[in-house]
Amino acid sequence: MKIRHNITVTLGGIISLGLLLTFGLALWPVTIRVDHDWLKPLALLLASALYLGGVGLLFRFLHRITPRTSRWLTWGLWGLFLLIQVWVATAWVAAPRADLYFVHQQALNLLNGSQHWNAYFYTYPNNVNFTLLLSGILQAGRWLVGSDSGVWLNVVQFAWLDVGLLAIWHQLRRHNPARANLFMVLIMTAVPFYAYALNTYSDTYVLPLALLAIAAFRHLQHATTWEQITLRSIILSVLLVAAYLIKANFIVLLIAAVITLWVRPNHSPHPGFTRSLLTLVLLATLVVGGGLAKKSARANGYTTDPNQALPAMSWVAMSWNPATYGQYHLANVTQIRDQPTKAAKQAQAKADLTNYLHTLGPSGIANHLFRKTRLFLANGTFDSFQINHAYDRAPNWYRQHRATSDWFLAIWCQLSYLALILVNLGWGIQQIRRYHLTSAYLLGGLFFIGLTCFHVIFWETEERYALPIFFLLLAGTAAGYRQPLNILRYSERSSWLPLGMALAFTGILGLAAWQNTNLMVHSNSEPVSVVSQNEGHYYQNHRLHLNAGQSLTQPFTAPLPFDQFTVGTGQRLTGKVTLTNAQGKTVWQSTGKRSAMARTIPLQSAGNYQLTVTNQGKRPLALQTAPATYPLLPQAIQQHPHQYLSFEITQRSIAPVLSNGKFWLLFGAMWLSGLLVIDRFYWYRRRI
Questions:
Q1: d(CA 470, CA 243)
Q2: How far is the C-alpha of 188 from the C-alpha of 138, rounded, in Å?
Q3: How far is residue 630 CA from its own chain's centroid?
Q4: Who is most buried in 1, 168, 440, 501, counting CB within 10 A?
Q5: How far apart are CA 533 and CA 673, in angstroms?
Q6: Three-state SS for 25?
C-alpha cells in the first residue's frame, strides 16, 4: 500500500511539473502557424489573471444561489448552450480539404456502392476506420435530412461532443451543482469546442470517447459487486479500444487507465479482482476490436498494402527534421513514398532519422525537443483557426472581418488557457500536500503526460493533437477551483489595500499597453478569402489538360467584393484568363500570350462570375483540378460535372493588426474589468 501511495504522489509531482512547464510555454505562443502577432507575455498574464478573477466571482455567485435557482440556472445554461450550437452549426459549414477531402469522398463512394479505395488510404491506413464510420453517418443523414450533408454533419458532431460533455457534467453535478454550472459556462465560452465541432475529422469523433472513458473509470472505481465490476469493465474497455481504433495515439489513454487502476484503491471488497479483470477484458477487447475493424474494412473492399503504407519509423524520422518544429513535412513524406517497397521505405526512414540525429547533436536534440514541446503545448488555440481553411457557408461579416475576429478569439483562447492551467496546477499541488490524488486527476494527468511524450519524443507534433488536454483542463478547473482565501484575508488588515492594488494594476497595464503598441503599426497583409477551392494537392496532383485553343470555365459566387485571383500555384502559363459577370459581360481579361495565374484586378462587386482559362499555345495546357462527387463549390467546371478548378479569389487587406480604436478598446476593457474584479473581491473578503 505504501509503495502505491508513494508512486501516486510521485506521479502527481510529475503532472504538476508538466503543468508548470506548459504555463511557462503558453506565455510565449508559437507564431509559425498564425497570421498575426500575439500580445506580449505581460499582457497575456494580466488578461489571464482577469479571466481567473472572473471565474472566481462566478464561482462565488454559483455557490450563493439557492438550490431551486441553481436548477433553473442549469436548464437556462443548457438551453442557451444548445441555441448557440444550432446557430453555429447552421451558419458555418466547413469545406473538406486535404485529408478531409479524401475521407469525405471515400465515404461517399462507399455509400454509393463503390468499394474501390483511393491510393491515399494505402499510404495513410490510419483513416480507414474513421472513413467507415463517416460513411454510416452520411447514410443516416440521407435518410433524415436529404442532401444537406454539411449541416447534418455539424449537428451530429455537436450532439456527439455534447454526449461527452454531459458525462463530465453529470459527474460534477453529483458532487456539487455549482461546479457543474461553472463547467457549463467555461465550455460555452471555449472557442476550440466550436471550431472542432465544425471539423469532420477523427479529432472531433474521438474526444467524447475519452471523456466517456474517464466517467466510466470513476464508476468502475466505485463498483462493489462482481456484476458491476464486470459490466463496467466491459464498457470502459469498449470506450478505450474504440478511441484507439479511431486515433492510434489514444493508446496512451489505455496505458494511463491501467496504471491508474493499479496504483489507486477502489471500493471493491477484493481490489485485485477489479484490477485483474479490467486488464484482461481490455486486452481481449483490443484483440477482438482490432479483428472486427480489419474484417469490416475487408468487407468494404479495403486490403492493406505494406509496400504503399508509410512505416512508423517514417513519422518518427519526419518529426526530427531540424528544419521544422516536428510537424508534418511534405518533402520527407514524398521521399519515403517514392521508395518502391516496404523494406526500402523503412531503410530510407531509418537513414533519415540517423542523419537528423547526427546533424542535431546533443545540444541540437535538446533544442529540438524544446521546439516540439512549444508547438505542442504553447498555443491555447489548439489549431482552431487552421483546421478549417475554407467554408462553404459562413456569415459575410465573418468573411470580411475574419482576420480581426480570429485575432480576438485567439487571444481569448490563450488567456483562458493560461488561467485553466494555473487552476489545475494549484489543484494538483493541493492534492499532493494532502498526500491524496483523486483517480480522475491522476488518470487525466497521466493522459496529458503520455500524450505529450508520445508526440514530443517520438511522433509528429501539431497543436491539434493536444486538443484532449484542453477539455481535461476545463473539467479540472470546474472540479478543483478554490477561492483564494489566504490572499483575501490579508485585505482585512487595511482598507487601503484595494486602492493600492488598483493603482498597481493600472501601472502594470499601462506598461503592457506600451509593449503592445506595435499592433497598431505592424501591417497585416493577409488577404480576405472570398472563394477558395484549395483541396490539398499534397497527395494527388490531378490535372485537366486543354488542347490548343480549348477553354475551361469555372463558375463561382463571390459573397464579398474582390480584387485578386490565383489559379493553381499562380505560375505563368501560355494562356488567357477571362472574368465575366452574371450577365455574360467581360469585366476583366489578361493581355499577352503568357499570363500570370496570380493577378490583381480592378475591384469587383459581390455576385456570380465565371473564370475562363484558354490555351493560347500549341502544346496541351495542364491545370490543377480536384475530382469530387460532392460539391466542392456550388458549381463544377462547365462540361466537367465532377471537376473543380484549383483557384482562390481574395480581397486585399493591408492594415494594422488592430486599429487605434480597437487597441484602446481592448486595453480599456481590461482596465475596467480589472478594477471590477478588485472591487468585487474586496467586497467579498468578509463573506467568503
A1: 17
A2: 27
A3: 25
A4: 168
A5: 42
A6: helix
3-state helix, strand, coil in the chain (%, to 5): 60, 10, 25
CA triple 529-531-533, angle to 5 deg: 110
- Rounded CA-CA distance 333/347 in Å is 14
Give the pLDDT of residue 443. 93
Secondary structure of residue 581 in the 3-state scheme: strand
pLDDT digits (tens, 9 = 90+) for 150-184: 889 999 999 999 999 999 999 999 888 999 999 99
**Helix axes 67-91 and 149-175, enclosed angle (nearest 10):** 160
> In whole angstroms, what is the distance from residue 95 CA to residue 391 CA?
5
DSSP of 429-465:
HHHHHTT---HHHHHHHHHHHHHHHIIIIIS---GGG
Distance in angstroms (rounded) separating the CA atoms of residues 519 and 419: 23
Total H helices, total E strands in the chain: 23, 16
Going by C-alpha positions, the residue among 10, 101, 2, 63 that lies closest to residue 482 is 63
Contact 418, 44 (CB under 8 A): yes
Q: Which residues contact 26 (CB under 8 A, 6 or more apart)?
A: 44, 377, 378, 379, 380, 414, 417, 418, 421
Name beta bridge partners: 651.
528
Instruction: Categorize the per-residue pLDDT at 206 as very low, low, confident or very high, splitting at 50, 70 and 90.
Output: very high
Are 74 and 178 in contact, with CB atoms under 8 Å apart?
Answer: no
CB-based contact 226:273 (threshold 8 Å): yes
d(Cα 428, Cα 9) in Å, to the nearest integer? 10
What is the sign, positive or negative, of the torsion defined by CA atoms of 510, 511, 516, 518?
positive
CA–CA separation, 55 and 435 (whole Å): 27
pTM score, whole prediction: 0.90
